[in-house]
Design brief:
The protein is built from seven helices and two strands, in the order H-H-H-H-H-E-E-H-H. With 267 residues, it is mainly α. Helix 2 packs parallel to helix 5 (115-134). The protein is elongated.
Length: 267
């Protein structure tokens, strides 16, 4: 078993350093003001770093040192694994929803800004996920995860109700992420198409220079900004799809299998 734990002891510091480097780049590049996307990315990288420090590292260290689980360590591990899982899927939904909103304007042609809302919602989701993660510890579910054979942190060991809740919540966040991601991608695609058609027909006008709210960009500069926004939108879509396919969807499939098994056994 030690041979299986050694790779985690090597990969975990690399993962944590990569996440910390990403956070440092975001913080140093946007020192004066963080936009909503920056806040969500910082939250995602912090969650990934904490997840790397807890979920693979603690069992690997116990295996290498031939140590046993104790009650407090098992409670901390279950709380951390559950909290970080909920935060991960929530961050993805917040990121895509934010990108879907910032590309829109209101009926009065006022640009919709969700940066302040994101700065409020992200800490709220962290707090709610931390409270939900505490429910197995305070006795809201049968204490079957702390056994003499080890610490069982899978949701199938935390009761049927908890299993149904996390499955439905994860599926909801995944659906929100995919819908908002492809919605924003389609919106920016048609915005580029309309701008190109209007420019070719001579109907693509710039704001007047007397307008104090408009910066004096040329047509090519504005089209370059539109292309840059489209590239960022594609990047968010790629990150979303990769995260769903490689991380969240397999987790939901395992939850669904555990749920069907639990329901068949209860019947």
């Amino acid at each position: 078993m030690i041979a299986g734990s050694l790779p985690w002891l090597v990969l975990t510091p690399l993962a944590v350093l990569t996440d910390l480097l990403s956070i440092t780049i975001i913080v140093c590049h946007y020192r004066q003001q963080f936009h909503g996307t920056d806040v969500v990315f910082i939250s995602m990288f912090v969650c990934m770093a904490l997840n790397a420090l807890v979920v693979p590292l603690i069992p690997a260290l116990l295996d290498v040192t031939h140590s046993d689980w104790n009650e407090h360590l098992c409670h901390f591990f279950v709380w951390s694994a559950l909290t970080l899982r909920l935060v991960q899927v929530s961050n993805l939904a917040i990121l895509t929803f934010h990108w879907s909103k910032i590309l829109r304007t209101s009926t009065r042609q006022i640009k919709i800004s969700t940066t302040t809302l994101v700065k409020i919602v992200v800490p709220i989701f962290w707090g709610v996920a931390s409270i939900v993660g505490l429910l197995p510890i305070i006795g809201a579910v049968p204490d079957r995860f702390n056994t003499s054979d080890g610490c069982l942190f899978l949701l199938s060991d935390l009761g049927l109700g908890f299993l149904i809740f996390v499955t439905v919540y994860s599926l909801t966040m995944i659906c929100i992420s995919l819908v908002c991601s492809f919605d924003s991608l389609a919106l920016i695609h048609y915005a580029k198409k309309i701008a190109f058609i209007k420019y070719g027909a001579g109907r693509f006008y710039l704001p007047r220079k007397t307008d104090g709210n408009a910066e004096n960009y040329s047509v090519h500069e504005r089209y370059g900004q539109l292309n840059f926004a489209a590239d960022l939108c594609r990047l968010v879509t790629i990150v979303t799809c990769f995260s769903v396919i490689a991380n969240h969807l397999p987790y939901v499939v395992s939850l669904s299998l555990s749920l069907s098994l639990s329901l068949s056994q209860s019947c």
